[in-house]
Amino acid sequence: SSRGYSAQNDRGWFRSLFVHKVDPRKDAHSNLLAKKETSNLYKMQFHNVKPECLDAYNSLAEEVLIPTLHSDKDYPCDLVGSWNTWYGEQDQAVHLWRFSGGYPALMECAEKLKRNKIYMEFRTERSKMLVSRRNQLLQEFSFWNEPLPREGPNIYELRTYKLKPGTMIEWGNNWARAIKFRQENNEAVGGFFTQIGDLYVVHHLWAYRDLQTREETRTAAWSKPGWDENVYYTVPLVRSMESRIMIPLKISPLQ
């Protein structure tokens, strides 16, 4: 009933008084929301591949990316995950990289790659297979899980939210409480927000055994008191949203 819903909202409001909230006036959003114990920077790449070239693209990536970057300790970066989009944008590859040491690590890696003959040849060959590409630099939310390697088989969902400018702090405050409702099946992989590229963009990365498990896990969240409040308060912050279901490549540490 409407009376019951109002009472539930009142209880939610009362509980929120006792949750520590970030004050948006004191510092930059990135400093308030990002993890303090690490200086990690993330890069997410979206490569739209010519349909007839997707298998060749995957083979080339598997042949070069792991030995050239991920396994070479001279490069301060490691591959978090690589996928092909299954549902969503078709013929697309998504790569997520972690740079340990922030922007200096990113620039060190870029300078070293310019002098890496194998990598430059890889880029030339790869460019023949692409329709378009874009990237974003991200930080991880302080309250989200660390994206650690996991065994498969899994499917991954990348849920992307484009927020209204000025609402990132409010989003973070709500999800800092809500993330606990999505931990029972170990589905939460990582949560990120953009620093460079499209701004006020949030990415939530989830792992599921299959599409049916995804449906059951998402439905179960609604039975937990407090989840509906998170949805109620965060939906008005969103300008648009997108869901990709992705399949890991063989080289992906997230399987």
TrEMBL record:
Keywords: Autophagy, Mitochondrion, Transit peptide. The keyword Transit peptide applies. The keyword Mitochondrion applies. Residues 156-253 form the NIPSNAP domain. It is found in: Mitochondrion matrix. One of its GO terms (biological process) is mitophagy. One of its GO terms (cellular component) is mitochondrial matrix. InterPro entries: Dimeric_a/b-barrel (IPR011008), NIPSNAP (IPR012577), NipSnap_domain (IPR051557). This is Nipsnap homolog 1. The gene is NIPSNAP1.
